[in-house]
Amino acid sequence: MTDQIPDHHQPVTNRCRQVTSDLDAYLRRSLNPERNHETRRHLDACPSCWTTWHRYRWDAARPSPLFGDLATFLGPAFIDYYDSSRRLAAEWDGAAATTPEQIRRFYADTPSYLYNQVIWHASGNRPPYLRDALPLLRRERSRTVLDYGCGIGADTLALRATGYTVIACDLDSPPTRFLRWRQARAGSHEPVHQPDALPLAPTPDTLWIIDTLDHLPDLDQLTPVLRQVRLVISEDLAATRTHGSQGFHLRRPAGEINAHLADQGLHPILTIPQSGSIDAWAAPRERPNRVGASTT
Questions:
Q1: Distance CA 259, CA 122 (A)
Q2: Are residues 150 and 46 in the same domain?
Q3: What pTM was computed for the model?
Q4: How far apart are CA 130 and CA 154, in angstroms?
Q5: Tens of pLDDT along 217-254?
Q6: How many domains are contained in the chain?
Q7: What secondary structure letter does DSSP report for 31?
Q8: How far apart are CA 296 and CA 293, in angstroms?
Q9: Which residue, 126, 184, 177, is CA-closest to 155?
Q10: Does 116 fall in a domain?
Q11: The 3-state secondary structure of 73-128, one letter per residue
Q12: Any domain includes 109
């Protein structure tokens, strides 16, 4: 499927209409899980329906200020209706990235992930992670959040606007350069830290790791952070979640992630209210191995 990238400026004839009536519900994530999964599988297999969906999502994103920021940031390089999902999948297959350094270089070079994140967010297709997590953040009295894999900074900026201290962290890449550009336009020059060069202070009490766990080549790179925090929030890791067929999603089983977090004293907790968009783990409020925590 990734060998041929459709030209979305051209009309598609003999279009299959199997999922046409579901596009808005699919965009807003209001389909039941079984129908959502069927729709995802059909989109992966049907080029004409994929093209319809792709244009639908772009048109939904177009009125968003974030979409306008992307066009301004890229300037003449901006490509309307750029199929970042298919292009990113094709680039990943071509790169054959397997080592951490190869993966770092892949994300550092491709603009496709920038388009992908912006259209996902601006179209309304991205789940409402922050809305669903706020009751939990308040209940657990979170103050300082490490946004690990912050990308374009959608959650970094939203968490700061809500009053949290946020440490942005990600590989240097087009998405993080876009984040720094947006911050500078707003008069802010907060850094975006490299994952292997996090600041010693402030110490985070919460790890916010949305749409990142399935991109990490090695969960052990999180161990120093997991020893510091007492709350971890990720996207829903249920076995029924769907990413499409892209190879750059490693699709770790939720059990593997749970086991790794349990080794660091973090265990699954229920959210308030219960939500299908996030999972969360918590540790005792004071931990002997937490930087800055009391040991007496």
A1: 34
A2: no
A3: 0.87
A4: 10
A5: 889 999 999 999 999 999 988 754 555 556 666 677 77
A6: 2
A7: S
A8: 9
A9: 126
A10: no
A11: HHHHHCCCCCCHHHHHHHHHHHHCCCCHHHHHHHHHHCCHHHHHHHHHHHCCCCCC
A12: no
